[in-house]
């Protein structure tokens, strides 16, 4: 690394904070409205009966949410629910004590939930918010509104799978009766229906089972590109309403979105770096801004390894992680851009990176918790340092390497670090600390 490169790369947090996206509230709203309009189909019809609950977790969006659309089609009324699970905010990592969910991520999550509630209201629904364990909350709600099904997005990692199992057991204990005080009859227990929706390529469209997933990314990529196709985004009806007409008062109404204070957290907003706005509308705004307004998609492959500024890369990852943004929608917009503007290596490379994301999601389904173990699925034995002082100097940006320290300070101040920054800082941690 030459001195000039080190010096010029050591300033990622200088200057005023940059909002991402940088669109005004009116621009963001207009983009969201136009996007929803393009994905609305008046011809959709619902053919179900009764009440369906939708349990939102890592799919905090209305657009291209298969679980939500399935629930609407299979019911007369839909009740969206978000559980503020205290386990998400409690505890720390086994090594070195990192908090499970720190304040900056929690703030982003709170904004995502607020935006979800806003978009559901625009579609004729609302969002019921409760603080507590889903396995305790959802059976109570299902009983109160006589729900026949709880729909949710399928997850792959152990903590989420554990909670899914507890929710399923809780619903099995629910007894629902219909018909008033006279002539009551029992209905079947509400069931948990899990819907795949976290990846660009659907798990059912892979050219192999998850257990036979290739252990080499290139083999996976070539197989899905040649033998699979990306499904279209789910269409929305003009209205997703109504919500249930009974039972809500019994369980205390819609509830309030949590604040950081209620979660025992606080944020001192950085005056430097980038500030990501949480929520589906911000996510749609960022896609529009990067692809269409700033026309950056055509140079993505050339600029993606930068470190300074908002537009050297897409910055989609926070919204993808929270489920505020659908990977299929990104694919759809890439294809639209290629038809209307240009198709080149850069436009393809966004899809290439989304295939990487899919691959790791499917690997987690194949290998389970072993992906988090030090040895990984292959059980590779390596010797790791446990030098606390050396670790803290790396964590706090006090290594003496300007590039490393600047990146670590950016992460601490803003919650963000570039892809190249993550590679470089982890490289020195893995090989030199």
Automatic annotation (TrEMBL):
Any Pfam family the entry gives: FAD_binding_7
InterPro entries with a match to the protein in the record: Cry_DASH, Crypto/Photolyase_FAD-like_sf, Crypto/Photolyase_N_sf, Cryptochr/Photolyase_FAD-bd, Cryptochrome/DNA_photolyase_1, DNA_photolyase_N, Rossmann-like_a/b/a_fold
Entry keyword annotation includes Flavoprotein: yes
Keyword field: Chromophore, FAD, Flavoprotein
Cofactor requirement: (6R)-5,10-methylene-5,6,7,8-tetrahydrofolate; FAD
Domain (Photolyase/cryptochrome alpha/beta) ranges: 50-182
Alphabetical GO biological process terms: photoreactive repair
Coiled coil: none
Residues reported to bind FAD: 300, 313-317, 353-360
MF annotations from Gene Ontology: deoxyribodipyrimidine photo-lyase activity; DNA binding; FAD binding
Function: May have a photoreceptor function.
PANTHER family: CRYPTOCHROME, CRYPTOCHROME DASH
Name of the protein in its database record: Cryptochrome DASH
